[in-house]
């Protein structure tokens, strides 16, 4: 099988190099245009560096077909994915972004699987454009920074969870990203810890942020607007939600699901209005369901938080 692997100092002037199913076992660099036609894994101890301006396209492979590396889909996707067990360093620039997308002529969400971090630490995605995946960035036991990136037209933009059998505990830093127009925005689950700050999270069909059995995390200085629901919480304790602009979400700005018995600290946010009764109309908590916690939205901001959202 053909695996296009450039050494860290390698170079190539040719376009659209094909990377077939396989494992990267040593340090490698991708640049220009890459076509992935099956699962590609970065092995433990290896680092894949992606050069600014690189376009990585994923062919739509047969679900559970021969281009998949693994039959067990507990930790993997049925479509082509980039599986990171070593390290991924994808640092684009403001004027020269790295693109991860579908190779289809008429792309749709779910054409490819994910950038799937699996028991992996010290990863960076900066100035990346990620689209038409099942889940743009997915972590099973992953430590990753996502900065200045645009995630759109994915089933879910970013999802993170822990697995008991993996040594690495999932933590994610999401800073200065646009997470717009996905099925779901950001999913934090299974004891993960995240810092979600200065992002624009909007127009995601189901939710902006979903905390599902997550560990204490910070949601600070974001714009969370025009999603199906702004923030959903289930069986999650210790989410700090402050200094955000949370408004104009279709169903609720904050919704506590059955099983969210803990109270939620959502003090000092802008809710699109100073009218507390209107704010409460878009919060589902103990007042609507006596079995869930209470959302504390006191000390509310009286005007939009100017520092919230993507800056610069």
Structure description:
With 312 residues, the protein is mostly beta strands. The chain has one domain (17-296): Pectate Lyase C-like. Helix content is 2%, strand content 42%. The protein is built from one helix and 30 strands. The strands form three sheets. The chain has an 18-stranded parallel sheet that branches. Strands 1-4-7-10-12-14-17-20-23-26 form a ten-stranded parallel sheet, with no helix packed on it. The protein is elongated and about 60 Å long. The termini are far apart.
* Radius of gyration from the alpha-carbon trace, in angstroms: 20 Å
Structural class per helix/strand content? Answer: mainly beta
| Parts with pLDDT < 50 across at least 5 consecutive residues | 1-13
CATH architecture: 3 Solenoid
Number of strands: 30
The helix tally amounts to 1
Concise structural overview:
The protein has 312 residues and is an all-beta fold. The protein has one helix at residues 276-281; strands at residues 17-19, 22-24, 28-30, 33-36, 40-42, 47-50, 55-58, 82-84, 87-91, 98-102, 115-126, 128-131, 135-147, 150-152, 156-161, 171-175, 178-180, 184-189, 193-197, 200-202, 207-212, 218-220, 223-225, 229-234, 240-242, 245-247, 252-256, 264-265, 283-284, 295-296.
């Amino acid at each position: 099988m053909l695996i296009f692997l450039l050494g860290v100092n390698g170079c190539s002037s040719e376009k659209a190099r094909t990377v077939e199913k396989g494992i990267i076992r040593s340090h490698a660099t991708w640049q220009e245009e890459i076509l992935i036609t099956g699962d590609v894994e970065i092995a433990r101890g290896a680092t894949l560096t992606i050069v600014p301006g690189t376009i990585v396209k994923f062919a739509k492979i047969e679900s559970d077909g021969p281009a998949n590396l693994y039959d067990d889909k507990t930790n993997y996707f049925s479509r082509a994915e980039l599986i990171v067990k070593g390290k991924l360093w994808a640092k684009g620039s403001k004027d020269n972004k790295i693109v991860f997308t579908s190779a289809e002529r008429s792309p749709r969400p779910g054409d490819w699987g994910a950038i799937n971090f699996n028991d992996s630490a010290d990863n960076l995605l900066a100035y990346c454009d990620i689209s038409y995946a099942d889940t743009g960035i997915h972590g099973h036991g992953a430590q990753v920074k996502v900065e200045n990136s645009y995630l759109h037209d994915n089933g879910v933009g970013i999802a993170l969870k822990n697995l008991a059998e993996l040594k690495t505990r999932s933590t994610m830093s999401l800073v200065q990203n646009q997470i717009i127009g996905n099925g779901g925005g950001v999913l934090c689950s299974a004891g993960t810890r995240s810092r979600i700050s200065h992002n624009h999270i909007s127009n995601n069909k189901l939710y902006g942020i979903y905390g599902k059995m997550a560990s204490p995390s910070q949601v600070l200085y974001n714009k969370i607007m025009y999603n199906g629901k702004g923030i959903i919480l289930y069986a999650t304790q210790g989410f700090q939600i402050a200094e955000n602009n949370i408004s104009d979400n279709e169903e609720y700005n904050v919704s506590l699901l059955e099983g969210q018995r803990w109270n939620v600290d959502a003090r000092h946010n802008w809710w699109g209005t100073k009218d507390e009764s209107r704010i409460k109309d878009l919060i589902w908590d103990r007042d609507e369901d006596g079995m869930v916690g209470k959302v504390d939205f006191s000390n509310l901001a009286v005007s939009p938080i100017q520092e919230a959202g993507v800056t610069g």
